[in-house]
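User: Teach me something about this protein's shape.
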Amino acid sequence: MHDETGVPSEFERIIPDGSPELIIHLGLPFEERINGVVKQQETSFLYGQLFSSIEICPSIRPRVAGIKFHPYGLPGFTSIPQTELVGKRNSIKEVFPFLPLEEWLDKLNSEGNTETLFSAIDQMMLFLMIKQRNFPEDKIEKLKLAVSILQTSNGLLKIDELTRSLNMSRRELERKFNRYVGLSPKQLARIFRLQFALQSESKSDLLTHLALEAGYYDQAHFIRDFSSMVDQTPSQYFQMKSDLTEKFLLKEA
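Assistant: First, the predicted structure itself:
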Protein backbone atom coordinates (compact mmCIF):
# COMPACT_ATOMS: atom_id res chain seq x y z
CA MET A 1 0.00 0.00 0.00
CA HIS A 2 1.25 3.50 -0.87
CA ASP A 3 0.20 6.94 0.33
CA GLU A 4 -0.68 9.81 -2.01
CA THR A 5 3.02 10.67 -2.49
CA GLY A 6 3.74 7.18 -3.73
CA VAL A 7 5.75 6.28 -0.63
CA PRO A 8 4.88 2.83 0.77
CA SER A 9 2.72 3.06 3.89
CA GLU A 10 3.55 0.95 6.93
CA PHE A 11 1.20 -0.84 9.27
CA GLU A 12 0.58 1.18 12.40
CA ARG A 13 -0.62 -0.05 15.76
CA ILE A 14 -3.84 1.32 17.28
CA ILE A 15 -4.13 0.97 21.05
CA PRO A 16 -7.33 0.30 23.06
CA ASP A 17 -8.70 3.51 24.56
CA GLY A 18 -11.97 2.37 26.16
CA SER A 19 -14.26 3.70 23.41
CA PRO A 20 -16.17 1.99 20.58
CA GLU A 21 -15.81 3.74 17.23
CA LEU A 22 -17.84 3.97 14.03
CA ILE A 23 -15.60 4.16 10.95
CA ILE A 24 -16.73 5.35 7.52
CA HIS A 25 -14.21 5.31 4.68
CA LEU A 26 -15.07 8.02 2.17
CA GLY A 27 -11.88 7.24 0.29
CA LEU A 28 -10.22 3.88 -0.33
CA PRO A 29 -10.57 1.71 2.82
CA PHE A 30 -7.51 0.93 4.94
CA GLU A 31 -5.94 -2.49 5.21
CA GLU A 32 -5.91 -4.37 8.52
CA ARG A 33 -3.51 -7.10 9.56
CA ILE A 34 -4.79 -9.81 11.92
CA ASN A 35 -2.57 -12.74 12.88
CA GLY A 36 -0.36 -12.02 9.91
CA VAL A 37 -3.26 -12.01 7.42
CA VAL A 38 -3.89 -8.72 5.58
CA LYS A 39 -7.42 -7.80 4.48
CA GLN A 40 -9.00 -4.60 3.26
CA GLN A 41 -11.47 -3.09 5.69
CA GLU A 42 -15.10 -2.61 4.77
CA THR A 43 -16.32 0.81 3.62
CA SER A 44 -18.08 1.26 6.95
CA PHE A 45 -18.12 -0.71 10.19
CA LEU A 46 -18.15 -0.35 13.95
CA TYR A 47 -15.28 -1.35 16.20
CA GLY A 48 -16.56 -2.67 19.50
CA GLN A 49 -14.44 -2.22 22.59
CA LEU A 50 -10.87 -3.33 21.99
CA PHE A 51 -8.78 -5.01 24.65
CA SER A 52 -5.75 -5.61 22.45
CA SER A 53 -4.19 -3.54 19.70
CA ILE A 54 -4.94 -3.69 15.98
CA GLU A 55 -2.69 -2.97 13.01
CA ILE A 56 -3.90 -0.83 10.12
CA CYS A 57 -2.29 0.56 6.99
CA PRO A 58 -3.58 3.84 5.48
CA SER A 59 -4.71 3.81 1.87
CA ILE A 60 -3.97 6.12 -1.03
CA ARG A 61 -5.63 9.50 -0.47
CA PRO A 62 -7.50 8.44 2.68
CA ARG A 63 -10.67 10.26 3.70
CA VAL A 64 -12.10 8.78 6.87
CA ALA A 65 -14.90 9.79 9.20
CA GLY A 66 -14.57 8.37 12.71
CA ILE A 67 -17.25 8.71 15.39
CA LYS A 68 -15.87 7.85 18.81
CA PHE A 69 -18.35 7.05 21.58
CA HIS A 70 -18.06 7.41 25.33
CA PRO A 71 -17.35 4.01 26.91
CA TYR A 72 -21.05 3.79 27.85
CA GLY A 73 -22.39 5.79 24.87
CA LEU A 74 -23.08 3.23 22.16
CA PRO A 75 -26.26 1.78 23.80
CA GLY A 76 -27.86 5.16 23.07
CA PHE A 77 -27.84 4.13 19.41
CA THR A 78 -28.27 0.34 19.43
CA SER A 79 -29.97 -2.25 21.64
CA ILE A 80 -27.28 -4.90 21.08
CA PRO A 81 -25.48 -5.87 24.32
CA GLN A 82 -21.97 -4.44 24.14
CA THR A 83 -20.31 -7.76 25.00
CA GLU A 84 -21.46 -9.03 21.57
CA LEU A 85 -19.46 -6.30 19.80
CA VAL A 86 -16.17 -6.49 21.69
CA GLY A 87 -12.87 -7.02 19.91
CA LYS A 88 -14.01 -7.01 16.29
CA ARG A 89 -15.29 -5.05 13.31
CA ASN A 90 -19.08 -5.21 13.29
CA SER A 91 -21.46 -4.77 10.37
CA ILE A 92 -23.26 -1.43 10.39
CA LYS A 93 -26.42 -3.10 9.11
CA GLU A 94 -26.40 -5.52 12.04
CA VAL A 95 -25.62 -2.92 14.70
CA PHE A 96 -27.96 -0.24 13.30
CA PRO A 97 -30.67 -2.20 11.41
CA PHE A 98 -32.92 0.87 11.01
CA LEU A 99 -30.22 2.94 9.27
CA PRO A 100 -30.62 3.29 5.46
CA LEU A 101 -26.87 2.96 5.09
CA GLU A 102 -26.52 3.45 1.33
CA GLU A 103 -28.52 6.68 1.46
CA TRP A 104 -26.34 8.08 4.21
CA LEU A 105 -23.11 6.97 2.53
CA ASP A 106 -24.20 8.80 -0.63
CA LYS A 107 -24.98 11.90 1.41
CA LEU A 108 -21.65 11.83 3.29
CA ASN A 109 -19.69 11.28 0.10
CA SER A 110 -21.40 14.25 -1.52
CA GLU A 111 -20.27 16.68 1.19
CA GLY A 112 -17.36 18.69 -0.13
CA ASN A 113 -15.94 20.22 3.03
CA THR A 114 -15.38 19.29 6.64
CA GLU A 115 -18.06 21.56 8.10
CA THR A 116 -20.88 20.16 5.96
CA LEU A 117 -19.59 16.62 6.48
CA PHE A 118 -19.73 17.03 10.26
CA SER A 119 -23.24 18.43 9.98
CA ALA A 120 -24.35 15.42 7.94
CA ILE A 121 -22.79 13.04 10.48
CA ASP A 122 -24.63 14.84 13.28
CA GLN A 123 -27.90 14.35 11.38
CA MET A 124 -27.18 10.65 10.91
CA MET A 125 -26.40 10.11 14.59
CA LEU A 126 -29.52 12.03 15.60
CA PHE A 127 -31.54 9.76 13.31
CA LEU A 128 -30.10 6.70 15.05
CA MET A 129 -30.67 8.13 18.52
CA ILE A 130 -34.33 8.84 17.75
CA LYS A 131 -34.76 5.27 16.48
CA GLN A 132 -33.29 3.88 19.70
CA ARG A 133 -36.11 5.10 21.94
CA ASN A 134 -35.68 2.71 24.84
CA PHE A 135 -32.24 3.79 26.06
CA PRO A 136 -32.46 3.56 29.88
CA GLU A 137 -30.67 6.83 30.68
CA ASP A 138 -31.89 6.73 34.27
CA LYS A 139 -30.38 3.26 34.77
CA ILE A 140 -26.82 4.15 33.85
CA GLU A 141 -26.22 7.30 35.89
CA LYS A 142 -24.05 5.41 38.36
CA LEU A 143 -22.31 3.64 35.50
CA LYS A 144 -21.40 6.97 33.91
CA LEU A 145 -20.09 8.15 37.26
CA ALA A 146 -18.08 4.94 37.67
CA VAL A 147 -16.43 5.42 34.27
CA SER A 148 -15.63 9.03 35.11
CA ILE A 149 -14.07 8.05 38.45
CA LEU A 150 -11.96 5.33 36.84
CA GLN A 151 -10.73 7.68 34.14
CA THR A 152 -10.01 10.52 36.56
CA SER A 153 -7.97 8.14 38.73
CA ASN A 154 -6.10 6.91 35.61
CA GLY A 155 -7.41 3.43 36.32
CA LEU A 156 -5.72 3.21 39.71
CA LEU A 157 -8.79 3.06 41.94
CA LYS A 158 -9.51 -0.44 43.23
CA ILE A 159 -12.85 -1.85 42.15
CA ASP A 160 -13.95 -2.53 45.73
CA GLU A 161 -13.33 1.14 46.56
CA LEU A 162 -15.31 2.14 43.50
CA THR A 163 -18.33 0.02 44.46
CA ARG A 164 -18.29 1.45 47.99
CA SER A 165 -18.19 5.01 46.70
CA LEU A 166 -21.16 4.27 44.42
CA ASN A 167 -23.08 2.23 47.02
CA MET A 168 -23.35 -0.64 44.53
CA SER A 169 -22.57 -4.30 44.78
CA ARG A 170 -19.68 -5.58 42.71
CA ARG A 171 -22.05 -7.95 40.93
CA GLU A 172 -24.40 -5.12 39.91
CA LEU A 173 -21.50 -2.98 38.68
CA GLU A 174 -20.07 -5.88 36.66
CA ARG A 175 -23.47 -6.57 35.12
CA LYS A 176 -23.97 -2.94 34.04
CA PHE A 177 -20.45 -2.70 32.64
CA ASN A 178 -20.89 -5.88 30.62
CA ARG A 179 -24.24 -4.73 29.23
CA TYR A 180 -23.50 -1.09 28.51
CA VAL A 181 -19.69 -0.89 28.17
CA GLY A 182 -18.73 -4.36 26.99
CA LEU A 183 -15.76 -4.61 29.34
CA SER A 184 -15.50 -5.34 33.05
CA PRO A 185 -14.60 -2.43 35.38
CA LYS A 186 -11.16 -4.00 35.87
CA GLN A 187 -10.55 -4.24 32.11
CA LEU A 188 -11.56 -0.63 31.55
CA ALA A 189 -9.34 0.45 34.45
CA ARG A 190 -6.39 -1.33 32.86
CA ILE A 191 -7.01 0.50 29.59
CA PHE A 192 -7.15 3.87 31.34
CA ARG A 193 -3.93 3.07 33.17
CA LEU A 194 -2.24 2.05 29.92
CA GLN A 195 -3.42 5.25 28.24
CA PHE A 196 -1.99 7.27 31.13
CA ALA A 197 1.33 5.50 30.74
CA LEU A 198 1.37 6.24 27.01
CA GLN A 199 0.66 9.92 27.63
CA SER A 200 3.37 10.06 30.31
CA GLU A 201 6.04 8.39 28.17
CA SER A 202 7.56 11.65 26.92
CA LYS A 203 8.15 12.75 30.52
CA SER A 204 10.01 9.61 31.59
CA ASP A 205 13.33 8.42 30.24
CA LEU A 206 13.32 5.07 32.02
CA LEU A 207 10.70 2.32 31.94
CA THR A 208 11.03 1.91 35.71
CA HIS A 209 10.08 5.55 36.26
CA LEU A 210 7.23 5.31 33.76
CA ALA A 211 5.87 2.17 35.41
CA LEU A 212 5.87 3.79 38.85
CA GLU A 213 4.27 7.00 37.56
CA ALA A 214 1.49 4.96 35.97
CA GLY A 215 0.81 3.11 39.23
CA TYR A 216 2.29 -0.30 38.44
CA TYR A 217 3.88 -2.32 41.21
CA ASP A 218 7.12 -2.72 39.31
CA GLN A 219 8.59 -2.69 35.83
CA ALA A 220 7.83 -6.37 35.23
CA HIS A 221 4.12 -5.83 35.98
CA PHE A 222 4.06 -2.86 33.62
CA ILE A 223 5.74 -4.79 30.79
CA ARG A 224 3.38 -7.75 31.23
CA ASP A 225 0.25 -5.57 31.23
CA PHE A 226 1.50 -3.43 28.38
CA SER A 227 2.46 -6.38 26.20
CA SER A 228 -0.90 -8.11 26.68
CA MET A 229 -2.81 -5.10 25.33
CA VAL A 230 -0.35 -3.69 22.81
CA ASP A 231 1.14 -6.96 21.52
CA GLN A 232 4.59 -5.38 21.80
CA THR A 233 6.93 -4.67 24.66
CA PRO A 234 7.11 -1.01 25.76
CA SER A 235 10.57 -0.66 24.20
CA GLN A 236 9.37 -1.99 20.86
CA TYR A 237 6.31 0.22 20.86
CA PHE A 238 8.01 3.48 21.78
CA GLN A 239 10.66 2.96 19.11
CA MET A 240 8.01 2.52 16.39
CA LYS A 241 5.31 4.94 17.59
CA SER A 242 3.71 6.80 14.67
CA ASP A 243 1.68 9.95 14.08
CA LEU A 244 -1.43 7.89 13.31
CA THR A 245 -1.07 5.96 16.55
CA GLU A 246 -0.89 9.29 18.42
CA LYS A 247 -4.35 10.20 17.14
CA PHE A 248 -5.85 7.17 18.95
CA LEU A 249 -4.48 8.03 22.38
CA LEU A 250 -6.79 9.60 24.92
CA LYS A 251 -5.89 13.24 25.35
CA GLU A 252 -6.53 15.49 28.28
CA ALA A 253 -9.19 18.11 27.61
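Now, about its shape. The first strand starts at residue 12 and ends at 14. The beta strands are 12-14, 21-25, 31-34, 37-40, 44-47, 54-57, 64-68, 89-90. If you'd like, I can walk through any region in more detail.
User: That's plenty for now, thanks!
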